[in-house]
DNA sequence: TCTTATTTTGCGTCTTTTTGCTAGTTTTTA
DNA sequence: TAAAAACTAGCAAAAAGACGCAAAATAAGA
């Protein structure tokens, strides 16, 4: 049997069943396991499949980068996410909210970081899946079309059953007086549940949102333990927040 | 024997069997291996076939595998999804499994169709969000990196609390004798729960998977109410399934 | 037909590729 | 934590390929 032919067979099997065992293929094609191992390694090198311990899996599943390079103030959000990374240590259990700032945090997680991440955001979950050492747990529930996050009673109930070290959340509006507020009532309910399930809550917000408010209240400002903006912590724009017991980064 | 004539023979052999061994051809035509090697090299130069170590393979064989889109057998899967659409009526409550065939079903849902869709697959959920009249409910749980679906005890528990009209599921392997089987134990557990929560279960599978099996069993074949392949329902490949109480589409 | 130029073919030698095996290490699993 | 499975690396045998060369076949012109 030709090498090329064998590799085609391997590829087809992987595409067909999504995953294969090297031993199965070796037996089926009646060649040594080493040969299959070399074939798979080569196909992996050509990005035709992904080699894993003991077998191979199809790329169809793993390669999907929902690159949206149309994010407002991406630079600032990236800065914020970078600062947030400093809070993370191996073994931490965290919750990551939806929104582009939190998505940026997910994107910038170092590949070697060992985490357990809860999220109710589909894009965040997708992004986290690319991090080999991150365990991703999706909080289910009805999914909002606009925010692409699970909301509603079910999501809130699921959140009530978990406890995390840190919650990283975004907000629609934030004000040193009025706290965190939102345009949407359902979102507020979920965010309340998120804050409740966290030992410490970290707010990620670009400075543009400071001193703004809206209809529905998520929480008082001192429900937040750490607030991260793209500004230097000493920036005078942050002065109104210094009266409260908040760590500024 | 003329050189032209010999090269024609080589070409037709390649077309016929998709591949040839240089040694076989040399012996059959009673010329030295060097001659065949030169012929094949020349034909490769003319893009009539592809030369590989030890032989040659037809171009069709390779272009077939050079997937321009990375979904294997997308055409067939699309056909299957089209057929599945016929089962759906406004107001239905369904579950959609992970996998590329089910993803294709989600993709092809008409925008005007009014549905409630449960899913444990992140890509399917994302796709369903683009359908204005579909209510999407994500079944949460730990998310598998390979399949990008929620699995594990939590997902199974969540599934135990819902009841849907139809479950559309895929499978790794299906056989009329051995039923539906999978490579992965965790996936089997989830699929069992999916079948349990559905009044009727619809299996979507390309015909290439028929008569294949693997280690872990999801269910007997008669746990499936409807099986949809890309084949015509009267196709003889489906005969083994006619003995069971399955509707074929 | 004969001679000559050109192409094609087969052979020998040497290099490269492929493959299976062994030994030692790492990863997974129970 | 120990056994089992999988991985890595290196080696050697066998198969395949490259290349030069000379013989054979073919073509062409006198």
TrEMBL record, chains A, B:
Q: Which InterPro entries match?
A: Carb_Metab_HTH_regulators, DeoR-like_C, DeoR_HTH, NagB/RpiA_transferase-like, Tscrpt_reg_HTH_DeoR_CS, WH-like_DNA-bd_sf, WH_DNA-bd_sf
Query: Which Gene3D superfamilies does the entry link to?
Result: 3.40.50.1360, Winged helix-like DNA-binding domain superfamily/Winged helix DNA-binding domain (1.10.10.10)
Task: Indicate whether Cell membrane appears among the record's keywords.
Answer: no
Question: Which terms are listed as keywords in the entry?
Answer: DNA-binding, Transcription, Transcription regulation
Does the keyword field hold Magnesium? no
Give residue ranges for domain HTH deoR-type. Answer: 3-58
What is a GO molecular function of this protein? DNA binding
Protein name per Swiss-Prot or TrEMBL: Transcriptional regulator, DeoR family
């Amino acid at each position: 049997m030709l090498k090329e032919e064998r590799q085609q067979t391997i590829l087809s099997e992987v595409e067909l069943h999504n995953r294969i065992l090297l031993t199965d293929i070796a037996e089926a094609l009646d060649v040594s396991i080493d040969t299959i191992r070399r074939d798979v390694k080569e196909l992996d090198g050509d990005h035709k499949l992904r080699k894993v311990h003991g077998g191979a899996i199809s790329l169809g599943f793993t390669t999907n980068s929902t690159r949206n390079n149309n994010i407002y103030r991406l630079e600032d959000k990236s800065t914020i996410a970078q600062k947030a990374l400093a809070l993370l240590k191996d073994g931490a259990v965290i919750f990551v909210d939806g929104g582009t700032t939190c998505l940026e945090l997910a994107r910038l997680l170092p590949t070697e970081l060992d985490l357990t991440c809860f999220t109710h955001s589909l894009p965040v979950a997708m992004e986290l899946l690319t991090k080999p050492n991150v365990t991703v747990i999706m909080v289910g529930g009805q999914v909002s079309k606009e925010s692409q996050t699970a909301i509603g009673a079910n999501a809130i109930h699921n959140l009530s059953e978990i406890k995390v070290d840190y919650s990283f959340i975004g907000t629609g509006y934030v004000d040193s007086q009025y706290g965190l507020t939102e345009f949407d009532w359902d979102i507020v309910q979920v965010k309340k549940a998120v804050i409740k399930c966290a030992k410490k809550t970290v707010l990620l917000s670009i400075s543009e949102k400071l001193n703004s408010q809206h209809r529905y209240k998520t929480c008082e400002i001192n429900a937040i333990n750490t607030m991260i903006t793209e500004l230097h912590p000493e920036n005078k724009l942050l002065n109104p927040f210094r009266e409260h017991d908040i760590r500024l980064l």
